[in-house]
Design brief:
The protein folds into two domains: 49 residues; 142 residues, Rieske [2Fe-2S] iron-sulphur domain (Rieske Iron-sulfur Protein), CATH 2.102.10. By secondary structure, the chain is α+β, with helices and mostly antiparallel strands. Strands 1, 2, 3, 4 and 5 form a five-stranded antiparallel sheet that branches. A four-stranded antiparallel sheet has the order 6-7-8-9, with no helix packed on it. The chain is globular.
Length: 209
């Protein structure tokens, strides 16, 4: 269809020719709109993180505040945990901004203490005084891990019974999970509190369906 014929058709249909667009015009307009929405989305995400620091992911230097159990609301120190006992759930805490990063579910962490001599080399390197920190979310469907198999030193998800080796980098012992449980490399700050040296060793949360 020629430009003249197309304009004639629009006039016959009651549409002014000045507002007639060909297919290429529509494609260009759509591309521009999508690009604009993407930029807006990125800016909105950055603004949300700035306005809600509690939603930021775990950061190097964060401490760990216990959120359940007998140690609730305490900041983690290595002598709080008994070797081989059931893990505690914790959330990262920014000591500089005094902000608990609990609004981001992916920040949920399990802290426990095991014998360093029983750990493999990489697990030992990421521990401090035998203390370990793992993501609390199963890598299968992101259920919160609540079970501890003390004899085997395995973390078990109650939803679909996936198991992860706490002595071996959170490796999968039993599926359906296929990805190891992310760890948080640890150290101690000047006040003796356990802190994160870096972020998670892998992406926390479940696999995409």
């Amino acid at each position: 269809m020629t430009k003249e014929r197309r304009h004639t058709q629009f006039v016959d249909d009651g549409v002014c020719p000045e507002f007639a667009f060909d297919r290429r015009d529509v494609i260009k307009l759509g591309t521009a709109l999508v690009a604009g929405v993407s930029v807006i989305g990125i800016n909105d995400a950055a603004a949300t993180a700035q306005e809600n620091p509690a939603k930021l992911p775990l950061q190097p230097g964060d401490r760990f505040q216990i959120i359940r159990g007998a140690l609730k609301n305490k900041f983690l120190q290595q002598d709080m945990l008994e070797v081989g006992s059931k893990p505690f759930e914790a959330s990262p805490f920014d000591p500089t901004g005094e902000m608990l990063r609990r609004r981001n579910r992916l920040n949920r962490v399990l802290v426990l203490r095991l014998d360093p001599d029983e750990m493999d080399d990489k697990t030992r390197e990421r521990s401090v005084e035998g203390v370990l920190a793992y993501s609390a979310l199963c890598t299968h469907r992101a259920c919160t891990i609540k079970s501890w198999k003390a004899k085997e030193r395995n973390l078990r998800c109650h939803c679909h019974l996936s198991e992860f080796a706490a002595l071996a980098e959170g490796g999968v012992v039993r599926g359906p999970a296929k990805r190891q449980l992310p760890m948080v490399p640890l150290s101690l700050d000047d006040d003796g509190f356990v802190i994160a040296v870096d972020g998670f060793t892998g992406k926390p949360g479940g696999a995409k369906k």
